[in-house]
Amino acid sequence: MLDCNMPSFQEGSARLSAITYEMVALLVQHAEAIEGIPKPGMRDRLTEAAEWIRSHCHESLTLEQMASQANCSLSHFSRQFHRFIGKTPIEYLTECRILKSKALLVSSNMTVKHIAEYSGFSNSTYFIQCFRKSEGMTPEQFRMLRGISN
User: Fold this and answer.
1) 92-145: which CATH architecture?
2) What is the tens place of the pLDDT at every residue in 88-122?
3) Nearest-angstrom CA–CA distance, 126 and 112
4) Of 90, 131, 144, 149, which sits 20 to 30 A from 111 (CA to CA)?
């Protein structure tokens, strides 16, 4: 009688092993996906850091200052910010500066040089380069398309 149950026991054991292996594989797969999502506390800190960057984008900011706002190490902040926001902190900072400059281009008669400085860019050449990369045109072309001349 014990011999009759042996193959059944072995089949059940093999099936259990296969199911266990499949469960472990699924757990690993989901753990990898979940690992990319910051924990709730970290999400709040990253959201606050992004808001701080946006409100201080006209200043000369360093990555260290940004990481400090999120109370993180530099590497952890950079990695988590990119995962959560979808851009590196520097890309986000540049985007905020471009948005600020676009508003100034259409609402003021400031020179491109002054807008670059006021928006946080270190010099107007770099500003024009970033603007062209982002918008596909120079700041002057953008301004002229909006019907505003300097």
Assistant:
1) Orthogonal Bundle (1.10)
2) 999 999 999 999 999 999 999 999 999 999 999 99
3) 11
4) 90
pTM of the predicted structure, to 2 decimals: 0.73
Asked whether the CA dihedral 125, 126, 132, 135 is positive or negative, the reply is negative
In the block, which residue shows the tokens 């590497």? 75
Tokens linked to 102: 């676009």
In 10 A of CB 127, how many CB atoms?
24
Does residue 127 contact residue 139 with C-beta atoms inside 8 Å?
yes
C-alpha distance across the termini of the chain, in Å: 99
Nearest one of 123, 128, 125, 122 to 105, comparing CA atoms: 128
Whether the Cβ atoms of residue 88 and residue 82 lie closer than 8 Å to each other: yes
Kind and range of the H or E element at 43? Answer: helix 40-55
